[in-house]
Amino acid sequence: MSGPEDTSKRMSGGRVEGEPTIGERESSDMDAMIKSVAGGPDRSIIVKNGGQSTRAVHGGERVKGGLKARATLDALATPIVQTATFTFRNTAEIVGYNEGTYESFEYGRYGNPTVRAAEEKIMALEGAEDCVVSASGMNSVTTMLLALVDSNGHVVTTTDCYRRTRQFVTTVLPKMGVSLTVIDPADCDELERILKTKGATLFFSEQITNPLTRIIDTERICQLCKQYNVISCIDTTFATPINHRPIEFGSDLVLHSGSKYLAGHNDVMCGALAGKKDLIDQVRKLQGVLGGVVDPHAAYLLIRGLKTLSLRVVQQNNTAAELARVLQKHPCVEKVHYPTVRSHRDYDVANRPGMFPLGFGGVISFEIKGDGNPWSQETFDAAARFIDALRIPYIGPSLGGVESLVEQVRVVGYYDQPLEVRQRLSITNGLIRFACGVEDTKDIVDDVVQALEDVPIGLTVAQMREAGEPPMPKGDEEEGNRAWMRKTIKELPNLRSPITVQSSTTCREAIKMMHSNGIDQMPVVQPFVGGAPDDLEVLGLLSMATLSKHVLTHPEVIDNAVVKYASQKYVVVEPTATLEAVADALNAYTDRRTGDTGVVIVAEDIGSKKILRYVVSRIDVLAYETDALGTF
After folding, report:
1. How far is CA 256 from CA 269, 544, 602, in A?
2. Which pLDDT band holds residue 576 (cuts at 50, 70, 90)?
């Protein structure tokens, strides 16, 4: 039996006397590495004996090892490995590479050492098993969804999110048979109901959301996703790993637009996805096929930016919080969207201990009061006067860089969107998004306050036009932007045949059908006597929420005919109705207690019967809007 360890020769640093230091071990390992690189056949002869073209191509580069290899390893900054192709010295190496015993890269689309250094830095910040960096944040999110959600999958996301992400999930994924459910960021009870009754493949949300700075309950959401075997992916572009790390709360994946805070200097386009290795492997493989890789120089700039991330974010946190404090008291500001404000919808969750220990990032949104009508010309003009009176921030999209940026959201992000769309998304004419840079807090606050002086006393609309100042965009009235509203339902492309159940269908079969098709409402029908062979008479509208409630409280009804549980209250329009009429009908659908998406039954009146033609949902309307406006 061995005795206690003899520590008499152990030095204060924990190293036993006579053992090599860390630096000595590294130096020895490097010497061995350089010798192995320099070994093998002497290729210098091709330079010595070759012609001028051969010397120009291979001189100074073909012979490896020596000073160049050592200096590359000794460089303080990570080298930019600007190559598309990686080579092998012999057949054994490439065989070893394919078998996983020789660590290297093969082709730039599959990896690069500079890019890998950036990925490993993000892994360290997020506490992730693996990371894949790509050409943009949108490339990261689209490749992730395509890799992890199969056809006939089901994605759950939240209402307030980046517009281009919304476009992808509402216009592209449905074409692949993927269904979508959209919930309020704060509605965890609705998420639990959906996961319990429908199931899902993946949950995706931003934390903090763009542009209204909503906060999700990361911990509960991740618990629910784990309970129901759903992949969770949280986009923390606004939060950064300095303020919030979803993986610590149980998230499978975390996503960033690296162009923003991570790189931090408004000079890089990149995205990053970090998390569980098995999921990252799937995404990396598809990225190698689709080709959305980041170039090595951009990866180097990302590495450089990450080194100062915490310094920048702390400053931006402090500036945004102070700006929120000042703005909430200002008479020209109607509302402030920032989680430090007590009136913020998600204040309690946001300020729960451990959620955001250092702050909420540098993006603050607020609404200029104008004339009190958030949709009026005067409110638009007041916001424009404020923007134009600012001296420090640049006017433009993006955020997270060292320079402050400001935008009137109505103009920068939603210029081509009609009033109905913006009202549904709460994008008012006075909504301002201010992305704080790292300038002195006092300078930014003073600049905002002085610019607000122009809000109540600026030029009138008539004076602006006389002076050549641009008036409010004509998006609310312009012919092109409203043409889609006048299309009739019959004119809409890609209308799907309605999914229905017969009156004799059992509750068990109906639940299975709604679950497999990713829908939460469908009509109950029966053949129309005296009509065409395919004519179906609508008997009622079935709700997954209502039906599930009945079955859960009364399990014995699972094999009863479903018609008994179909509601007679549903919205009906004619096939000749315009899409505007459909949108109005959906807005009139006020019973939101069930959490259903809301659908309109498109039917013809024959006698006193409703003969089914189509079913149109809220998500369908949003997809038609974005397609028609050419915003993808």
Report:
1. 11, 35, 41
2. confident
Which of helix, strand or coil describes residue 123?
helix
**How many CA atoms within 13 Å lie on the side-chain side of 340?**
21
Q: In what order do the strands lie in the sheet with 231-235?
A: 130-134, 271-275, 253-257, 231-235, 202-206, 154-158, 179-183
Nearest to 173 by CA among 156, 193, 190, 161: 156
For residue range 314-356, what is the model confidence (pLDDT) as tens digits? 999 999 999 999 999 999 999 999 999 999 999 999 999 999 9
| pLDDT in the model for residue 48 | 86
In terms of average pLDDT, the best of 28-42, 182-196, 557-571 is 182-196
- Work out the average pLDDT over 78-86: 92
Listed residue (441, 135, 136, 125) closest to 308, CA to CA: 125
Query: Phi and psi at residue 15, in whole multiples of 5°?
Result: -90, 135
Annotate 374-386 with b (16+ C-beta within 10 A) or e (fewer).
bbbebbbbbbbbb
CB contact set of 470 (below 8 Å; sequence gap of 6+): 384, 464
Q: In what order do the strands lie in the sheet with 363-368?
A: 333-337, 363-368, 431-435, 405-408, 394-395
Q: Inform me whether the pLDDT recorded for 459 exceeds 60.
A: no
Closest-CA residue to 455 (of 375, 372, 395):
372
**Inter-residue contact 598 to 617 (CB < 8 Å):** yes
| Residue 365 near residue 432, CB atoms below 8 Å | yes
DSSP code per residue over 352-408: STTTSSS---SEEEEEE-TTS-TTSHHHHHHHHHHHHH-SSSEESS---SSS-EEEE
> Per DSSP, what are the bridge partners of residue 521?
543
Residue 293, amino acid:
V
**Mean pLDDT, residues 378-407 taken together:** 95
CA–CA dist 74, 346 (Å, integer): 49
The pLDDT > 70 percentage for the chain reads 86
Instruction: Write down the H helix ranges in 520-615.
Output: 544-553, 579-587
Instruction: Provide the pLDDT confidence category of residue 217 given band limits of 50, 70 and 90.
Output: very high
What is the spatial distance between Cα 224 and Cα 203, in angstroms, rounded to a whole number? Answer: 10
Phi, psi of 465 (to 5 degrees): -70, -40
The DSSP letter of residue 21 is P
How are strands ordered across the β-sheet holding 609-617?
501-502, 521-527, 536-543, 609-617, 599-606, 571-573
Report d(CA 273, CA 202) in Å as an integer: 15
d(CA 538, CA 535): 10
pLDDT tens-digit map of 170-187: 888 888 889 888 888 989
Q: Rounded to a whole number, what is the distance in angstroms from the first to the last CA of the chain? A: 73
Question: Between 188-197 and 544-553, two packed helices, what is the crossing angle to 10 degrees?
Answer: 70
Looking at residue 606, its amino acid is: I
Identify the burial level of 285 via C-beta atoms within 10 angstroms of its C-beta, where 0-12 means exposed, 13-18 middle and 19 or more buried: middle
Query: Is the CB of residue 589 less than 8 Å from the CB of residue 514?
Result: no
